């Protein structure tokens, strides 16, 4: 796997990405996408929402999707999956291209990085079953994050576990109270990580 990493947080309400080449993290956008009559991406996030509101009187030629991630939870029918795969892959493709563009613009060497230069991390809810996780893999392949020959460079990470890994690598002094004051946790202290998303709320207990 490449030591260069792009992680995509594909959320129910908001989505964003982070990469390992610099500490920069892209601000999250709403998880909504606007497609034209040919299924091509017109806009994503705030731009998609604003554009949709501008043209909502003539929506026959456009397709607007929002908060569609949790449609994979449960047992969606095949027709839903076929349409969902197109929407998910289009959204992932947009995030991929935007991440690569941001990296190219923010590296001094102006290296023309491509998707295959990176290990990709996709976060998914812990409550998703294997079929939903496989669906995300297929969407990632269609979006061009990886190919069918390089799927080993794609990591599917459970959202609460990703949050807990981050907390585990923090120094005890790096925890912050609601007031903004730092608090130093003693060795052996126990704490709970709560992942409060758009539609899911999951927790995990840890020991420092």
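Q: What amino acid sequence fits the structure above?
A:
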């Amino acid at each position: 796997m490449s030591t260069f990493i792009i992680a995509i947080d594909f959320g129910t309400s908001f989505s964003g990405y982070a990469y390992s080449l610099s500490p920069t993290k892209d601000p999250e956008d709403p998880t909504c996408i606007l497609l034209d009559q040919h299924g091509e991406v017109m806009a994503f996030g705030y731009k998609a929402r604003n554009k949709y509101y501008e043209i909502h009187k003539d929506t026959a030629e456009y397709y607007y999707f929002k908060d569609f991630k949790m449609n994979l939870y449960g047992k969606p029918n095949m027709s839903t999956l076929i349409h969902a795969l197109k929407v998910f892959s289009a959204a992932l493709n947009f995030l991929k291209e935007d991440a690569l563009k941001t990296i190219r613009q923010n590296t001094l060497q102006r290296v023309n990085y491509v998707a295959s230069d990176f290990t990709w991390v996709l976060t998914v809810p812990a409550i998703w079953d294997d079929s939903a996780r496989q669906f995300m893999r297929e969407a990632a392949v269609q979006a061009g994050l990886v190919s069918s020959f390089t799927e080993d460079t794609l990591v599917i990470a459970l959202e609460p576990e990703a949050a807990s890994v981050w907390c585990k690598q923090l120094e005890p002094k790096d925890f912050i109270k609601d007031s903004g004051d730092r608090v130093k946790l003693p060795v052996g202290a126990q704490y709970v990580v709560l992942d409060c998303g758009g539609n899911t709320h999951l927790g995990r207990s840890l020991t420092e």
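Q: And what stands out in the fold?
A: The chain has four helices and twelve strands.
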